[in-house]
Write a structure and sequence with these properties.
Blueprint: E1 2-9, H1 22-35, E2 39-49, H2 59-67, E3 73-76, H3 86-98, E4 102-105, H4 115-148, E5 161-162, E6 171-172, H5 174-189, H6 195-204, H7 217-225, H8 227-230, E7 233-236, E8 239-242
Parallel strand pairs: 1-2, 1-3, 3-4
Antiparallel strand pairs: 5-6, 7-8
């Protein structure tokens, strides 16, 4: 009987050698198939930090759903490897079933064709979704606490700054601070100028974006919209405080 596996990691810590790491999941699936006379033909994986990526955009999951055929067994180590969202997990299981295949979880050895066991599976997935909600809530609370202290709560650092892992605040990107200052100088010098005009002037003077490319109007707008941030004020999710980052203007 043919089997395919699916593995993923949802946090950076899992992208390694702990109990949820990709290699551990693959090894568990391989051993399970060998012990149950299943011919494992492929293991689909999503090695990136897939917790922040919409499930249906995961290339490994999409490839698995496209490849599965009638009679196949789809093996996962745990149901939350599919998704920590009850309705999404049910949708994926339904798509697998529509293909004539069966989803099997090694850690939760229940069968979808048994009404009682399917109820138990729904309960398990509900707890997985609840756990994800708790994680999201804790992360949000931690970021807000950091924001109240003026520290950077996460995300891509705006032009003029660098975000280093482990740092409590952003640090200056010395190569780009002059670029930020020049944007505001041009706005002050030519208050009626359009965003495109300012972008063209920056390009003409040899200034480049954070990525080292030519400026476009929306990039100019993002800088201008962050004026208070460049002045040293930090805002995040309704929190406003004096930032720990050094101001540029």
């Amino acid at each position: 009987m043919i089997a395919v596996g699916y593995v993923r990691v949802s946090t950076e810590n899992q992208n390694g050698c702990d109990s949820f790491g990709l290699e551990t999941q693959k090894d568990t699936i391989t051993k399970y198939c060998a012990a149950n006379a299943l011919e494992l033909v492929q293991i689909f994986d999503d090695p990136a930090l897939s917790g922040s990526l919409p499930a249906l955009e995961r290339p490994g999951l999409r490839a698995m759903l496209d490849a599965v055929k009638e009679g196949d067994k789809v093996i996962v180590t745990r149901l939350d490897r599919i998704a920590r969202d009850l309705y999404l997990s049910l949708w994926v299981e339904k798509e697998i079933r529509k293909a004539g295949a069966e989803l099997i979880s090694i850690s939760e050895p229940y069968r979808w064709n048994d009404p009682t066991q399917k109820l138990l599976l729904n309960i398990i997935m509900s707890f997985a979704e609840f756990e994800r909600s708790l994680i999201t809530s804790r992360l949000s609370s931690g970021r807000k606490t950091k924001a109240r202290q003026g520290g950077y709560a996460g995300g891509k650092a705006p032009i003029g700054y660098k975000a280093e892992r482990g740092d409590k605040a952003l640090t200056l990107d010395e190569e780009k601070t002059s670029t930020v200052r020049r944007v505001f100088e041009l706005r002050d010098e030519k208050p009626e100028a359009s965003l495109k005009t300012i972008a063209d002037m920056l390009n003409g003077e040899g200034y480049t974006s954070k990525e080292g490319k030519q400026f476009h109007p929306m990039q100019v707008k993002r800088i201008l919209d962050r004026k208070s941030f460049y002045e040293g004020i930090y805002r995040y999710s309704g929190v406003e405080s004096e930032g720990q980052h050094q101001n540029i203007i």
